[in-house]
Amino acid sequence: MTCQRCQDEAVVHLTELVDGRRKETHLCVACARASGLSLPDAPPDFGLDAVLQDLIKKHVGELVGELAESTCPDCRLRYMDFRTGGRLGCPHDYQVFRKGLLPMLQRFHGATRHVGKRARARPGASLRLRLRSQLRQAVAREDYEEAARLRDQIRLKDQHA
Fold this sequence. Notes:
The chain has 161 residues and is mainly alpha-helical. The protein has helices at 29-34, 48-60, 64-68, 79-85, 93-96, 98-109, 125-140, 144-160, and strands spanning 12-18, 21-27.
């Protein structure tokens, strides 16, 4: 489309309602500025990277630079992977990503510390946890006979619970 004043390429397109009728005006940058319109020096960047960075800044805030680069030294989870997936990788993540988690907890729950219900203590729960830990260790060291014995012991405890 060409400018209605000088026949250069039109980059500014205005639509106005005048006396109930629609009036379109097409101008080049120079003619638009001469008409008193203020235009940005450069067009907005709508590339994928720019759009993603803008979305991240809106949802994470000014901590985006510091948090986006942080990674848990234990499980190697990156903060941005947590933000996209919604799951933490290990208990250490709560400390590593604290600056990003506290505002979210405040927004979701209205508090940054637990004030709700607590799980009831189940009889034998600590024994079950200990047995499961021993089972994992036995499998890791490939002691399958011990692992089978521990598995059977866990099943027996679960049946009686």
